[in-house]
Specification:
Helix content: 40-55%
Radius of gyration: 27 Å
Structural class: alpha+beta
Largest sheet: 5 strands, mixed
Strand content: 5-15%
Oligomer: single chain
Distance between the termini: 34 Å
Low-confidence stretches: 1-8, 415-433, 464-496, 505-515, 522-562, 586-627
Number of helices: 31
Mean pLDDT: 73
Bound molecules: thymidine-5'-triphosphate, magnesium ion
Number of strands: 14
Length: about 625
């Protein structure tokens, strides 16, 4: 039996390492709030394993990276004009707030314990029991199992330590893919242009549906959830808010089988964000969480804004301030095929050293990838092999082809067959499997093998008769909804991009099973025809909250700009001009106060600036750090 003293890592590393060992899904719904005991059991169970050693190494590297970052920040602190930095930051906050648009009703729907509840349909006797899906690593766990700390991405042996009576089920991707299609088809009734985000989650804009059916958002979402349950026997949870980020955070609030509505007013949204742990924000992973060490809650972003500004390249000041304000994109539309960058498949297994068995796994992966590429209509030119050693170190090897490839044998041979002489028989081909990428690496003991293809060619472009794709078919032309959407899309040009992630670096804590969740996506989308749309990070025009609210119409319908301080409509779409006007207004207010203007004039200026009092107040009274 290991004692706590044996298990505990060096104090400087202990907290971060224990948290790291707990895995990427430690913020999941349904887990007990006090994770410390669970983290201790996980650390004890992992101690001495190759996984533990690898995590320890990665944790140390990350700690060193953070130390360097902090040094960079400290040097910048000494050299920078901090007053200017604070001014710029404050200015950006005002600018961002002026762009807030709360006119749309955005919903994020996410199925509860999706793989687990799909399995329940086939094994009803498991109802109320603690069970997980996946034999080596869990893809998910029933809510009963989560009470013990069992969750996605956890090694099965650790899960068993936390919950000895845990039942483990095999994975059945085709079951989840079928159920996913059925759920998505129901959701599409509420917004045919919804954005399917993974096999069990989607974003919808229900503004129009609610208007047309004279429904409140709450009623509409309750009805949607009820119908999903009636027709599929699966429960989904939902978040209702004014943008995608908030809706996603809200869908987790009342899981399982619940919904949460965040009202669309600026003050309520800011209050909601202030105590929200940054880790709950989509786009902030656990590496980011550690790198942002002193920022526990979104409210801390404000107090730490100068530091963040000095590390803008790493953390993206704009993204962080948007997050603090609870502002994000409210554009909901399907991912376009043009956005697809890669397709992959991989397998995790108990460590294998046998060459034949490893090649067998590679063949399975290649077969799965070929099926996916055929079904979704892609060819590729670059194949990347990924493998994970027994000690959890990950390696990749890539190879580009001269021609487009779609077939399993090409994927496997990873040799440009155009250069291979025609007398190669099938048998010889088989000998070629993995020659260039995998075989030189052997002998290896590996626990994961995967293939990913990039540099894709869309085979459906020619199938959809070229130019028609870009202008839409007759159905799309006649649909009033589509027409309006196109109008809005046309206005998505201008100065602003709502960022949805930290730009500096990837949170590269890739989880093996995470891949499964995303790879099922291609088959999850409902089959309704979709028009290609602009990329999601298309720049958006500086829209105006006041006009959008008043008109009650779709977003970005008008393009005037209003000064957030004096409320004057400005004849400019140029941000620089807008900023200098706001500067002028803010300084005018100060001058008026200094000159002791009449009480009446002062009252007027004050009422105009009232909307900003929260901000001006918080400038003079910095928030204390919350934990
Ligand atoms: P999630 O929606 O993240 O999780 P969930 O539906 O199981 O549970 P919750 O009630 O908290 O939403 O993921 C959907 C499915 O995707 C999940 O059932 C299994 C799969 N998945 C993976 O394969 N790997 C992963 O790392 C995660 C998180 C999920
Ligand atoms: Mg889910």
């Amino acid at each position: 039996m290991t004692s706590d003293a044996d298990t505990a890592p060096a104090p400087s590393q202990s907290k971060s390492l224990w948290k790291r060992l707990a895995g990427p899904s430690s913020a999941k719904a349904g887990l007990t709030t006090d994770q410390s005991d669970i983290n201790r059991v996980i650390a004890e169970a992992s101690k001495g394993s190759k996984f533990y050693e690898n995590e320890k190494k990665k944790d140390k590297e990350l700690t060193e990276r953070i130390e360097k970052l902090l040094q960079t920040r400290d040097t910048a602190m000494k050299e920078a004009d901090l007053v200017q930095v604070e001014y710029t930051t404050s200015h950006l906050l005002i600018e961002l707030e002026s762009l807030r648009d709360v006119s749309q009703i955005i919903v994020h729907v996410d199925a509860d314990a999706f793989f687990a509840n799909c399995e329940l349909l086939y094994n009803p006797e498991l109802k109320g029991k603690a069970f997980g899906v996946g034999k080596g690593v869990l893809t998910t766990a029933s809510y009963e199992a989560r009470k013990f700390g069992v969750r996605s991405g956890m090694a099965a042996f650790i899960a068993k330590k936390l919950c000895p009576e845990l039942i483990l089920l095999s994975i059945h991707p085709e079951r989840y893919s079928n159920m996913s299609k059925r759920v998505m088809a129901i959701l599409a009734r509420y917004d045919p242009d919804m954005l399917v985000a993974s096999c069990d989650e989607a974003y919808l804009n229900i503004t129009e549906y609610c208007e047309q059916h004279d429904l409140t958002a709450d009623k509409c979402v309750s009805e949607m959830r009820r119908i999903v349950q009636e027709e599929t026997k699966l429960t989904v949870s939902a978040g209702i808010a004014s943008n995608r980020m908030l809706a996603k955070i809200c869908s987790d609030k009342n899981k399982p089988n619940g919904q949460f509505h965040l009202p669309p007013d600026s003050q309520t949204i800011r209050d909601f964000m202030v105590d929200l742990p940054v880790r709950k924000v989509p786009g902030i992973g656990r590496v980011h969480e550690r790198m942002l060490e002193s920022i526990g809650t979104c409210g801390d972003i404000f107090t730490q804004r100068v530091s963040i500004a000095l590390l803008d390249k790493e953390f993206g000041l704009r993204f962080m301030l948007q997050t603090y304000l609870g502002i994000a994109s409210n554009v909901v539309r399907p991912h376009s095929r043009e956005e697809r960058k890669s397709i992959g498949a991989e397998r995790t297994f108990h460590p294998l050293a046998d060459k034949g068995k490893i090649l067998q796994k590679l063949e399975e992966v290649a077969e799965e990838l070929e099926n996916d590429m055929t079904e979704t209509g892609w060819a590729d030119r670059t194949v990347t092999l990924k493998y994970k050693l027994e000690n959890y170190q990950v390696f990749t090897r890539a190879k580009s082809f001269e021609r487009w490839i779609t077939k399993k044998n090409d994927l496997l041979a990873v040799r440009d067959l155009s250069t291979v002489q025609c007398f190669f028989t099938d048998v010889v081909m088989h000998e070629q499997i993995g020659t260039e990428l995998l075989l030189p690496e052997l002998p290896l003991k590996i626990r994961l093998i995967g293939l990913r293809v990039t540099k894709l060619k869309d085979l459906k472009i020619s199938a959809d008769s070229g130019i028609k794709r870009y202008f839409g078919g007759p159905m799309e032309q006649t649909s009033p909804r589509k027409k309006r959407k196109t109008l809005s899309d046309d206005m998505l040009v201008g100065d602003h991009t709502w960022q949805d992630h930290i730009p500096g670096f990837d949170d590269d804590e890739e989880d093996d099973v995470q891949v499964l969740k995303n790879e099922l996506l291609s088959s999850a989308k409902p089959s309704s025809p979709r028009r290609s749309s602009a990329p999601e990070n298309a720049t958006i025009h500086a829209s105006i909250p006041i006009s959008a609210k008043a008109s009650g119409k779709k977003r970005f319908i008008e393009s005037q700009t209003f000064c957030p301080v004096c409320g004057t409509e400005l004849d400019t779409n140029d941000n620089r001009k807008l900023n200098s006007h706001v500067d002028f207004c803010l300084s005018r207010e100060a001058i008026q106060e200094a000159e002791g203007h009449s009480a009446e004039a002062e009252a007027k200026t004050r009422s105009q600036a009232q909307a900003w009092s929260w901000f001006l107040d918080s400038k003079t009274k910095p928030r204390s750090k919350r934990k």
